[in-house]
Amino acid sequence: MTSEERVLPLVMGVLNVTPDSFSDGGRWCDPDAAIARGLELVAEGASVVDVGGESTRPGAKPVDAPEEIRRVVPVVEALAPVIRVSIDTRKDEVARAAVRAGATLINDVSASLWRTAAELGTGWVAMHMQGSPETMQESPTYTDVVAEVATFLEQRAALAARAGVKEIWLDPGFGFGKTMGHNLSLLRHLDRIVAIGLPVLVGLSRKATIGRLHAASDQAEVPTESTPPVPTDDRLEGSIALGVWAMAQGARMIRAHDVLAAVHSAKVVAA
Ligand code: HH2
User: Fold this and answer.
1) Ligand 1 within 6 A of CB of 14
2) Which strands sit side by side in the sheet containing 84-88, from one edge to the other?
3) Active site residue 178
4) Is this prediction's pTM over 0.85?
5) Which SS3 state, helix, strand or coil, does residue 95 take?
6) Radius of gyration of the chain, Cα coordinates, nearest whole angstrom
7) Active-site entry in 71, 90, 91, 207
8) What CA–CA distance (Å, rounded) separates 236 from 214?
9) Nearest residue by C-alpha to atom 9 in ligand 1
10) Any catalytic annotation for residue 255?
11) Residue-wise pLDDT tens digits, 59-114
């Protein structure tokens, strides 16, 4: 690889203004605490801060739009002058309110808001999910997970491009209606998603698959779907390892809770 080809992957810092997110739920519910946390993520080197007002962890209960807007807007308003802000939402009204408050990227785990992004002139992340957060981990089923996710993302990207979205990111949606086996297949063949030719974002940070891999490595066992994962705060090494794997396959942005470590690892990969 020549120096011209080296690209520093970006880090999207996670900021959940929710009581129930799987890792940082309840920690940044107060707007002042959330804004302070966002500024910390900036100081640690995040290129984007991803503000979310609704948890999408497995089994999470939906939040109504006014409540989600109440949670995210003050935080987006305070952070947008200092850092690029993405809004992690599945709802048109919330995306619009956040963009009015300064967000310039719609991080859409439902991959359905491309018309909103086109109309507002923002970037758009299309993420693959099978089912909805309430039930998605009950029995995820695919014939060929890599081909199905790649086809879905290609089709959504084509719709978005036709609607006029200029900045489109693709995300295979680790843990969203996927078993550990599905997640590992997608990681193994991430180059297939990268080959679509649009920038790829991955969200692996602290997810249950990593917790299971950690638990199994502690006990020198092969991890299975029923391996109890280690707690979310003990998943740093696996998060970095899989982030590095993804960046080496060509992922251009990684979504991370532990931003400082993710930024350091991105710099090492780029070098
Ligand atoms: N994962 C989560 C939320 N948003 N967005 C994208 N593009 N990719 C992801 O993998 C992704 C995402 C889930 O993580 P988190 O926000 O930490 O938890 P919760 O949904 O419980 O708030």
Assistant:
1) yes
2) 168-171, 123-127, 105-108, 84-88, 48-52, 10-16, 253-256, 201-203
3) no
4) yes
5) helix
6) 17
7) 207
8) 10
9) 203
10) yes
11) 888 999 999 999 999 999 999 999 999 999 999 999 999 999 999 999 999 999 99
